[in-house]
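no rush on this but wanted to send it before i forget. theres a chain ive been looking at and ive put its sequence and its fold in token form underneath. i want to understand how the tokens follow from the sequence so walk me through it. thanks a lot i owe you, the record is right below:
>
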Amino acid sequence: MDPVSENPSSFQPKRPAGLKLLRNTPPLGFQNLTCVNETHTGYRGWLVRRVCCLLFVWGCEVHPSPAGDIRHRVHGSERVRQALMKACSPDETKAMEQVMPEVRSHLGRLLTITQTFISPWLLRLVSWMLLKFFSLIFCSVQVNLNQMAALHRATQLKYPLVYVCVRQSGIDQALICLTLFCHNLRVPYTIYPAHFRQTWLRSILQRLGVILLPEGCGSERDAKMDSLYSPVMTSFIGELLREGAAVSVGICMSGGHSGQWLARVHQAISDGLVPDVSVVPVGISYDCLPRYFTRPQAGLMSALRFAISLLKGDHRGSVRIHFAQAFSLKEMCESGKCRVDGGRPLQDLLLTAILHDRMDTIFSQKDVSWLLPPAVMPELSPADRQQTIALTLHLMYSSTTSMAIMSTSLVSCLLLHKHRKGVRVSMLCRDICWLLEEVLFRNTDVGYGGSLVGLVHHALSLLRPYLLLAAAPPTGEPIIAPRPDPDSLLILSQHCDSLTHVFIHEAVGACAVSAMLSEVVGCGGGGDLEFDVVLGQEELTEKSLQLTHLLSPGFIPPCQTAHGFALDVVDSMVRCGVLVMEEVQKDTPVCDFMKRQGVLSWAVSDNPDQSSDSDCEEPDARSYKLSQPSQCPELLFFLCSLLSVRLRALCWALESLHYLPSPITERDCLSQLHAHLKNRAQLDKAHYETSSIDLVRMVLRTFIDLGVLIEDGQREDVYLDVSPLFSQCAHKEKLLQFFKQFMYN
């Protein structure tokens, strides 16, 4: 970053000074995809400068679609024939002659998916339109040229490429396809499991290689209930890869259906259709994504408002697309790197610690079989299912860690988690410098450049609709604070998610330290937190491990155990300066030393009234103290606040369980919990960011895994019911206190 040449206190938000640098001078080998000029064509002249984008698009190479009749090969595949025979087997109500025409007619509708192909002239036309469109909504679309060269080398291996990204919006995979097209790489078939009623729109998308849900299926959940859908799609994906076509897959962090597409890719290797597949994790970072793409609204007025905002050209952010190193799927699976060791349900790991204060079960791995439930692709063997789950976890983590940190993420995080009541711009600039150094220290890429004031100006211009600005007398320096309304806080919180992944070790460690300090206060009869205390390594690791099990997939490295992650959490607290190692005399048991310091000694015992010297026979390997008790709380509370949004959502949802009818469908439970969290935020007039729909999905998944809600899948839809165990107020209160202990007060 360039040194600051301006005085931060003289900052006046008039025009985005940093946009010129971000748009026209991408540093360090980055290219702005939307900046097309005559140098990208083989021609020169004043006329070329006016049609250079069209000439560039028509000069890009378009790889032909797979040749041959894929529909015929899919229909004749062994997998589809076996599924067809099983579906046509006579039952007690219908004869074979009545069933066969119905099944074959339904199979014909499913096989219309195989008519998807890539039309060269339509691809060029849409690519030209996308270049113009993205230049209106983004000031730049940054791509690393070195990564594109690596992709060209990967294509020389003659293996099909599969691009995998974490789904954030409806334009993620369009950006991937456009980037590959502009660099003369094969445009992938895009798996977009959505339903479009407009026949003309479905026809256009299918001619662009977009694989949609079949007609009559409103969602992936409806499609998985069809016994013929999975065999047809598995055979179709296999035939595409067999012909050398590339595929683009978007996985969802909270959904249980994303793993099925990776399973179908792996099945193509197992069936011998392709010798290997190169998988490319893709990370996409947005400065400020237009809300129309995150929450698309139907209707003429919403489309008109969106078009007006494009014409105005205000508040345009940038995009950074990161293509990670391609890896061999076959080598990954055969080497044993991509595997899931026998995990245990979350309730088996944590319930004994929550209800009985026993820690002997928390050291196992958590089961995440919901990423590919047995109802999805039931033909998979248990080994293939576990391998696909491990691959999904690996790609979730790889795609997430590939995302660059944008300037809006830094500003949103500081305003939401450190300066919620407002901050002067000069102090905000200093904090951004500190936070930027911490991000770079963790080997995380940033998606911006330029002077500090220009970057802050750029971020504030993008976030201005969600902020309050005032002038502080007597200098008139701006004071900035988050706008206290639900929409603004939700947007700012979404920008903070990427930084939560970067500081996840420190955030978990800070919450564990806060929980231990709260226990000290509880044992001392209440009062303020006491920071000048000694913390044992074993207890700190156990607290970190408990919170680690509550994290969603994508936070923990897939090749690391939860216990290893918890040990790294303690080490990270020392590296970042929050904790320092406390030296204890060797002839003094740690527990006695801690008691003299006024710290609770944790001893695992069924009877708390009984104590003996045996509790002190095996002291902790290490003990720690807060490095600067007088200054540390500010940093500690900032790190705790990164996870407080998720923990608060768990607490509020648990308190709202008694409002739910029983039993209730999973879809209705999700909507009603969402309504309860929004009402709670309205009553408290604070923490509106806790009521996002993504957090509600995370809460629902956690409650099912913990056994708070019991699934009943015997009916047509999945029904949920509160378990008898947590219908008891005492157990519900213990779980609530378990969540609250990690939240700073």
Remarks:
- The longest helix spans residues 632-655.
- Confidence is low (pLDDT under 50) at residues 1-26, 587-620.
- The two ends are 36 Å apart (CA to CA).
- The CA atoms of residues 15 and 328 lie 47 Å apart.
